[in-house]
Design a protein that fits this description.
This is DUF3325 domain-containing protein. Keywords: Membrane, Transmembrane, Transmembrane helix. It is a single chain. It is elongated and about 50 Å long. By secondary structure, the chain is an all-alpha fold. The protein contains four helices and no strands. Helix 1 runs antiparallel to helix 2, helix 2 packs across helix 3 and helix 3 runs antiparallel to helix 4.
């Protein structure tokens, strides 16, 4: 059961990351007027770095049940919980909890903690 919860947490993490990346490109940066162009490019790349990092966290959660080491599983899950908990809190604070993103991010935290 623990392994299934980590698998679910990983899949949700990857889904959240993909939504973050797509909405960033199609909504946020499509409307934003940022100049100079170099700054716009930098902000887009930093935004997508978060997307890639969250996908990596999701992959690690999916792989955690097959890690041969209990300490590796422990630190992988704890690290991902901290990363997504911080992101959920930051999103809720910045949007005054009006954005669905913090709920999705918190869902990853709950699933990963349950599968810990």
């Amino acid at each position: 059961m623990r392994d299934m919860l980590l698998l679910a947490a990983g899949l949700v993490a990857i889904t959240v990351a993909l939504i973050h990346g797509v909405l960033g490109e199609t909504v946020v940066f499509a409307r934003a007027t940022i100049s100079p162009e170099r700054l716009r490019t930098l902000l887009r790349l930093v935004w997508q770095a978060g997307t890639v990092a969250w996908i990596g966290c999701g992959v690690l959660l999916i792989a955690a049940p097959w890690m041969g080491s209990e300490p590796a599983r422990h630190w992988t899950v704890i690290t991902v919980i901290v990363v997504f908990a911080f992101a959920a809190c930051a999103n809720a604070l910045a949007t005054r909890a009006r954005h669905f993103g913090w709920v999705m991010l918190a869902g990853v935290v709950v699933l990963a903690a349950a599968g810990y």
